[in-house]
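QA checklist item 7 of 12: single-chain prediction sanity check.
[x] sequence parsed
[x] length recorded as 379
[x] structure emitted
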Amino acid sequence: MMPKTTPSLLRRKQPQPTITSLHLPFDLVEEEILCRLPVKHLLRLRCVSKSWNSLISGDSNFANKHLRLSIANYDHHHLILSSPEFVLFHSPISSFFSSANITMSIYSLRESLNKKILYANRASTCDGIICFKIDNSSALLCNPSIRKFKILPPISFSDQGYFQTLYTLYTLVYDRFTNKYKIIAVYTCSLKKEVHVHTLGTDYWRRIQDYPGPNFILRARSGTFVNDSVNWLTRESDSCAQYIVSLDLEKELYQKLSLPVFDVHFTTSCVTTLGTLRGCLSLFCYRDMFCDVWIMKEYGNQKSWTKLLTVPPMRDCHYYSYSEVFYISKDDQVLMEVMKSGYFTLVVYDSINNIFKIPNFQNYAMTPDVYVESLISPL
């Protein structure tokens, strides 16, 4: 007769789970782990399995979720500096606010590009893709994180060859109404300003309504993409009054936005620059060695312009001028660019303690911008 087995004996005989026997569901790995990793780690994990390679390299939903989490995670925000020779330097923005030495990672795209392209200027960035201006009719898109690029088809302007071309401004945007990335090109000649749009995935440009106002002087600077619109700082040739001209991506119509009401008389000696800070349209105003930083809290509402802070003069330095504000941290530290002794210099201003700090990466001759690494393909 077999001995009777008690419940306690059964519990003792069952094998205990070990770490090697545990298995995480693939959905859990995707939703909670992989999509939170930096791009450089994800690229290494592609070799783990075919399913991971397919997810990381070709799943647009995964790429979009990874992008959303990266935008929300300030540790994934980088400052990128691009040279005309397609050499890109970048470092986490948090490193500029800490006391640690700044280590710049380097991307070199020279070997991958057509050898005929010898020189290009960075035009704008959006969702990890960088738009380079090659010339007045050509541009290039590149995501350096995943080493993919695309040369856009040339633009055929209606009056090309008949009037003097001043410049073409390229702005890369994401149109959520069509779920497509687009490039807005403003072609400025001596008489008018043509506007052309290229939708990623197509092989052509289409012309839309011209940039408004023959008397508007458009600054030679890419537009600022925020709140489903592209914004350019413009002034009237007659009165020198400054405005913001905004292009609505859905309706493809323009509107004019007013600048904030300054607490001093606004003159042409005041240098202004548009940008984005904390998800809002921002305005940088440099005057009398001071720098005022404004944001439009409610887009389109002129009354919502709010002055965030004023950066005082750096009195212990030689002659300088503030150039641009790139980023404001959660604890109100300001990363900005200063022109000093003929060189651009990065400066961090601690607005709480009224202290300036100059990071150790200096005297660069490249264009800086805020950049979030992504898996979004420019192809």
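[x] summary fact logged: Helices lie at 7-13, 26-32, 39-45, 50-58, 60-72, 93-97.
[ ] second reviewer sign-off
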